Amino acid sequence: MLTDPREAYDRCPGHVEATLVLEHVEALGPVFRGTRRVLRDGGTFYLAELHPTRQFGGTQAHFEDEATGETVVIEAFTHPVSEFVDAGAKARFSLRGMGEWRADGDEHPRLLTIRFDMEPHAAGSQRGGTGVNDLTDSGHIRPPFYRRESRHRH
Questions:
Q1: Can you tell me the distance from the alpha carbon of 99 to that of 103, in angstroms, rounded to the nearest whole number?
Q2: Which of 43, 53, 50, 62 minimizes the C-alpha distance to 139?
Q3: Could you give the CA distance from residue 102 to residue 94 in angstroms, rounded to a whole number?
Q4: Burial class (CB in 10 A: 0-12, 13-18, 19+), 115
Q5: 63 Cβ partners below 8 Å, 6+ apart?
Q6: Residue 92, pLDDT score
Q7: Rounded to whole angstroms, how far apart are CA atoms 106 and 108?
């Protein structure tokens, strides 16, 4: 008999996606550990977030209140790219791809995407290391209307 409803979801999903939500979470560690707990062997954790350079420049999630016409700024926390990578490594994910996306005319990247995988052997494994390798686009989802940041300007 289940006494904790969270037990029913342990190791079930094959894919977890966080899109434009982690900027509203102060501490990333619990999110990554919780995702790791419920993700099944071989699963994928994909995130797409407002790029930290935008946040460092003052961009923050907001909306206009239809009743008052006022701009409402939503609380957000700036996480550098390394904080996402470190949280994934500490939760024993393998980093499989990272993208910095911009729309035409953008001076700085608009979105950051990261794909973490959970290797089948990693579930319950006590093996050391971070599992960070293979920094490629394999299996990456391209956000619509965005192009990938180029390392070289022409």
A1: 13
A2: 43
A3: 25
A4: buried
A5: 71, 72, 74
A6: 93
A7: 6
The two counts, helices (H) then strands (E), for the chain are 3, 7
The span from the CA of 120 to the CA of 124, in Å, is 10
Residue type, 41: D
pTM: 0.70
Contacts of 105 (CB under 8 A, 6+ apart): none
Among the ranges given (16-20, 25-29, 44-48, 146-150), the one the predictor scored with the smallest mean pLDDT? 146-150
Span 41-60, pLDDT tens digits: 889 999 999 999 988 988 88
